[in-house]
């Protein structure tokens, strides 16, 4: 199966990056690809077998979708593996890099949209996370 990998370095300690990535009170502030979208709700049962879900929708209410699945591996604060509701696998790693944290996401693409579009969408969300995490005091 083909995979897509994206990554970024967040200028925050790994413990904070892990917290911002996984706590629903933070997820709702970054889990969308552009400023005209939002994430009105998020749930996260952070344990193997635990389920997660979030709602992504356009701020104007014109469209939206739920995004969810279940965790297969949780190694705090280093690694997450999960399976999406459509059975695609995702691996997220968090590695110390100097005073920051490198996040690497590897995911199996879906078949409806071009690979480049999927990579751009996931990367936009990752960059939104970086902006959020680095802007926290």
Automatic annotation (TrEMBL):
InterPro entries tied to this protein: ASHA1/2-like_C (IPR013538), START-like_dom_sf (IPR023393)
Protein name: SRPBCC family protein
Domain Activator of Hsp90 ATPase homologue 1/2-like C-terminal: 13-134
Signal peptide: none
Record family assignment: Belongs to the AHA1 family.
């Amino acid at each position: 199966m083909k995979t897509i990998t994206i990554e970024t370095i967040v200028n925050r300690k790994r413990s904070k990056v892990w917290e911002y990535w996984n706590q629903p009170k933070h997820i709702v502030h970054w889990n969308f690809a552009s400023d005209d979208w939002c994430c009105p709700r998020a749930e996260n049962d952070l344990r193997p077998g635990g389920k997660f879900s979030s709602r992504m929708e356009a701020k104007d209410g014109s469209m939206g979708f739920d995004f969810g699945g279940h965790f297969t591996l949780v190694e705090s604060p280093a690694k997450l593996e999960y399976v999406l509701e459509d059975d695609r696998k995702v691996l997220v790693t968090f590695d110390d890099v100097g005073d920051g944290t490198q996040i690497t996401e590897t995911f199996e693409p879906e078949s409806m949209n071009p690979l480049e579009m999927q990579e751009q969408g996931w990367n936009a969300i990752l960059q939104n996370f970086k902006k959020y995490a680095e802007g926290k005091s």
